[in-house]
Each structure stands twice: as C-alpha cells, then as structure tokens.
Design brief:
Oligomer: single chain
CATH superfamily of the largest domain: P1 Nuclease
Number of strands: 6
Distance between the termini: 117 Å
CATH architecture of the largest domain: Orthogonal Bundle
CATH class of the largest domain: Mainly Alpha
Strand content: 5-15%
Radius of gyration: 31 Å
Order of helices and strands: HHHHHHEEHEHHHHHHHEEHHHHEH
Strand order of the largest sheet: 2-1-3
Number of helices: 19
Structural class: mainly alpha
CATH topology of the largest domain: P1 Nuclease
C-alpha cells in the first residue's frame, strides 16, 4: 500500500502520458511546426516542375529557379525556428529548465543561422544577377513591408537582422519574395537569344561587306541608313509584343531524325524555311509597300542568321536543346544557350571585332559557301545539329575544353551566315 501511495497506478500513468502528449501537440501547433513542414513537398514540386514551364524563356526560368531556392532557404529557417521554439516551450514545462535562459541561446543560434542564410541568398541572387529582391515579412499581428534583402550594403542587413532578433520579433506567416515579373517577362522576351545579339550582328556586318554596290544602295535607301547589323536583332525585339506572336515559329524548323526538310511534315504555323520564303516574296512583290518590305527585310536578315545556329534545326522534343540542361563554367544553362550566346560571350569580342576577324575568304571559298539553296543550308545545319547533340551530356560542366573543341564551328557558321545572307540580298536587291 505504501508503494501504491508513492507511485501512480497504471491507469493514472496513462492519463498523465495522454495529457503530456496532448500538451506537446499543442506546443507543436502553437509554433506552427506541422504547417511549416507541410510546405516542403509543394516547394519541392515547384522547384522540380515550374522552371521547365519557362524553359523557352531562360531569363524568367533563371529568376524563378533562384526565387524558389531562396524560398527553400527561408523555409528551412522557419522549420528550424519552429523546432527550437517547440523544444524551448516543452522544456519550460519541466521544473529543472524553467529558470534556464533557453530563449537567449536560441536567439544567438538563430543569428548565426540567419547570417549563413544571408550569405547563401546573396550568392544565389546578387553575385550572379544583381537582382533587387523585395521581401514581405508579416510579424505577429502587424504586417511590415520591408526592403529587406536589397544587399547594397550587406552589413546594414546584418545589423537590422540582429536588431530584429534582439527586439524579440518572431517571423510569422508566409515569407514572400517579389520580383517585378511583368518587367522581367518583357526583359526576358527581349533578351531571348537566337545567336544572341552579338552573333546576329556579326552575320549582318559580314553580309554588308559582301553586297554588290547596287544591292547596298537599294537597301540603304529602303532602310534610310540603318545597317544590317543594327536591324539583325529586330525579330527578337518584337517578341515582347503579342501582336507579333505568329512569327515565333519562323525562328526554327524541326523534323525527325533521318529526314530531310523536303520530306518532313511541315509546321502549319510556319517554320524557318517558310518564313524566309515569305519574306523574299513580299520584298520582290511590286505591290508591297515600303513598310511591309522594311519589316520583312528585317525579319529576313535575322532568320538567315538563325538558320546557321545548328540547334535551330534541332529536335522538337527537346526544343532545339533548350531542355538539355548543362553547366557553363559551373553556371546552370542549357545546350541551346551555350551555342546561342555562351561561347560567343566567352570569346569576349564585340561584333565589329568578330566580323573583322572572320571576314576573310578566297574567291573559291566564298563561292563554295554560297553554293546551294536555303533548303540545302537547312539540311546542312540539321546534320551539324546532330553533332552538337552528341557533344555534351545532361548536367555536364562545359568549360575551356568545350570552347576549344567547338568555337571554331561557331565561327564557321557565323561566316557562312554572313556570306549566304549577302547572296540572298544581292539576289533580291542587286
């Protein structure tokens, strides 16, 4: 009986345990640990699938990917904070820990973790893009809008964070990162590279150097002094205007492996070959007004350039290499972008410097390059695209060796594009 008086019965112990479990559950809910953990799976799904939706828009894709990574870091901080606060509140229910400065220990530890998070976010968002990040932080019952991660001065950010923690302000609800998506979407469209600006201008500049006097005179008269290099990027610039969306399919042509363009199934919305043909017809049509001729001349200059980027004649299933993820000097990109811009940018020459260094041909070389038709050139580019596909593996880090092995091909294609554009324009205006 004395033993029974000192110790609880089995039923009483069960009641105590059930009460403890209930209290602990309350603590978990109060500190929002279950809710924060529940965000992990949706966030992982977003990280995996959302960037793929914008694979045709590398700038937007990159911004979204980095935004999601930053959200992941912040979510991990929230989960860690919830775990620590849950532990603190539970220990406070125990007599031996009631007088311990657990909260202070947690504050010090969280300051350290926030510093690590800030450096991580800084590396993701600022070092690479110098993007302005707007963070909406809702605290307790008061919503506070802060220009929080501006990072013009990292020290000031750290100071503010320390002040925030010292004031015992706890993060509440959702942390949202805002980018100016409307402006970014427009920027992304304008900067969507097809040979990139430099590549297209090289093609235009080389072509200009090989025009007949008559063709050059007629083109200058039509364009009112604008050069071919200047107008070569026009077809990309107008993509920000939805009224020109119907021309999007003109930038590329896809057909099955083993086929040539002649026997392939044609895109009902148009393709690179069809687009070039329409431009030629409108320019030659005496009924076309100058405005239409100027517009389609600008498109034509661009499309001939696109024709000589091998992956513009690539496979439909991977969108001309856009879906093939690789790294360029450890930075995430795709195979299409490597051939559009990365190698040209790494060469670190202006379009005038590149065109000057590439514009040397013998008479026989020039005739050999200009031989054939647009369809012949497309089939040639398609064969080359198969070699490009074989040149890299998914997630492979491409760097100096890849540049050494393949930039000569880029230069050859830029030279071909310039000379063949000159041939087409001489036939139209000469």
């Amino acid at each position: 009986m004395r033993i029974a008086g000192k110790f609880l019965t089995q039923g009483q112990w069960g009641g105590v345990l059930r009460m403890g479990a209930a209290n602990f559950d309350d603590i978990l809910v109060t500190n929002k640990l279950p809710r924060n953990v529940a965000h992990i799976i949706p966030l992982l799904l977003l990280i995996e699938f959302v960037p793929q939706v914008f694979s045709d828009f590398p700038v937007v894709e990159d911004i979204i990917e980095k935004t999601l990574k930053i959200l992941a870091i912040l979510l991990m901080l929230r989960i860690l904070e919830s775990i620590l606060h849950t532990t603190r509140d539970y220990l406070k229910t125990l007599t031996r820990y009631k007088d311990k400065p657990i909260h202070s220990y947690i504050q010090v530890f969280m300051i350290f973790m926030w510093l690590l998070a800030i450096f991580s976010i800084f590396a993701i968002a600022i070092l690479w893009e110098l993007l302005l990040i707007f963070v909406l932080l809702a605290f307790n019952k008061i919503a506070i809008m802060l220009l929080y991660l501006f990072f013009l001065n990292l020290a000031s950010t750290i100071f503010y964070l320390s002040y925030m923690i010292k004031q015992n302000i706890m993060l509440r609800d959702k942390i949202l990162i805002f980018f100016l998506f409307l402006g970014v979407a427009s920027l992304a469209t304008n900067n969507r590279p097809f040979w990139g600006q430099t590549g297209h201008r090289v093609v235009g500049e080389i072509a200009n150097n090989h025009l007949t006097k008559k063709a050059k005179r007629n083109i200058e008269k039509l364009l009112k002094g604008e050069g071919l290099a200047t107008i070569s990027t026009f077809a990309d610039e107008i993509k920000s205007d939805n009224s020109f969306r119907k021309y999007s399919s003109w930038h590329y042509v896809n057909f099955k492996v083993g086929e040539t363009y002649e026997i392939s199934e044609k895109n009902p919305k148009g393709d690179l070959v069809q687009g070039i043909k329409i431009c030629q017809q409108i320019i030659l049509d005496p009924k076309s007004n100058n405005e239409d001729k100027i517009f389609h001349l600008k498109l034509l200059v661009h499309l001939i350039g696109d024709l000589h980027q091998p992956l513009h004649t690539g496979r439909a299933e991977d969108r001309g290499g856009n879906m093939i993820k690789v790294k360029w000097f450890r930075g995430k990109t795709n195979l299409h972008s490597v051939w559009d811009t990365k190698m040209i940018e790494s060469y670190n020459m202006t379009y005038t410097e590149l065109s000057t260094n590439l514009d040397y041909f013998s008479k026989n070389q020039k005739e050999a390059i200009q031989k054939g038709t647009v369809i012949d050139w497309v089939n040639e580019s398609r064969e080359l695209s198969m070699n490009v596909y074989d040149s890299a593996k998914i997630d492979q880090n491409l760097s100096y060796r890849y540049m050494y092995d393949h930039f000569s091909t880029v230069k050859i294609q830029l030279r071909k594009g310039g000379l063949r554009l000159a041939k087409v324009l001489n036939e139209l205006f000469g």
